[in-house]
Amino acid sequence: MEVVRSKVMGYCAGVVRVIKLAEEALRLAEEGGANAYSIGWFIHNPTVVKRFEERGMRHINHPSEGEGGVALIRAHGIGDSLREAFLQGGYTLVDGTCKTVAYSQELIRDSNPSENIVIIGQKDHSEVIALSNVYRDGKVIETTIVEDPSEVDQLNGFEDQSLLVVVQTTFSQSSYEAILEKLQRRYTNRLRVGNSLCPTTYRRHSALLEVCQEVEAVVVVGGKMSANTTALTQLVAEYGLPVWHVESYKEIPLEVYSFSRVGVTAGASTPSEDIEEVVTHLEEGVVG
């Protein structure tokens, strides 16, 4: 089998940064004789998270679940109310929020109070939860979340009012474009686009589409909880090729080997060693 690698895959800058900060959180906790925590999964990759759990980092979702110590804020960020609760609970916070996500939160915080905030993204995704819980003057700024193009027609209100649109940075590119187009058509010049998909996400998608033109099928490597990895899988499916989303080489299905030319890409939180193991098994024809 010939394996065609995408030119853009694996860790993005935000993931590299939060992993370094995870190391820093462990160091601070050890020096202070304190517990080390991450607030939720600091990235959506089970391999990486497990390595830090084995070294003593426990993930919690609320300060009441721990006993104080050093807590790492995940790359997707957290809402202001949760940040405040951890600080009041006596935790030392290490902020691993991706700079792109932090920028989006500031856009919302600094928006005109007369603007209606619309967030394009997955309602239960941790980044969207962080964006929909931003304070202004001590109160959470009201937001509306749109996950599917059909929901644009169901929006109530906003008549004769301005809108600020912010997108989950790892959201599906095709879904984002479809939703944004409908919003622009409905609200025209009353709509302001605040941010866009992460530039790395765009480059990753473009590189994958190039691969799709050269192969018969694609394997996407990354955590099943990862939105950006799932979006890559969706992109291949929309292109019309067989596609498999695997977390490791152990999940490679036998049917992949019926193809002679297979593409490989990976999400933004996928370690290079996981990618290499998948490529090696594909090239050698070994089933996980």
Structural features, described:
This protein has 9 helices and 14 strands. It is α/β, with parallel strands linked by helices and 288 residues long. It has 3 domains: 2-11 and 199-284, 4-hydroxy-3-methylbut-2-enyl diphosphate reductase, catalytic domain (Cobalt-precorrin-4 Transmethylase, domain 1); 13-97, Rossmann fold (3-Layer(aba) Sandwich); 100-193, 3-Layer(aba) Sandwich (Cobalt-precorrin-4 Transmethylase, domain 1). The strands form 4 sheets. A 4-stranded parallel β-sheet has the order 1-14-12-13, with helices on both faces. A 4-stranded parallel β-sheet has the order 3-2-4-5, with helices on both faces. A 4-stranded parallel β-sheet has the order 9-6-10-11, with helices on both faces. Strand 10, helix 6 and strand 11 (191-193) form a beta-alpha-beta unit. Helix 7 runs parallel beside helix 8 (227-239). It is flat, with a radius of gyration of 20 Å. It starts with a strand and ends with a helix.
Summarize the structure.
The protein is α/β, with parallel strands linked by helices and 288 residues long.
Summarize this structure as a short list of keywords or feature phrases.
single chain; 288 residues; alpha/beta; Cobalt-precorrin-4 Transmethylase, domain 1; Rossmann fold; 4-stranded parallel beta sheet; 9 helices; 20% strand
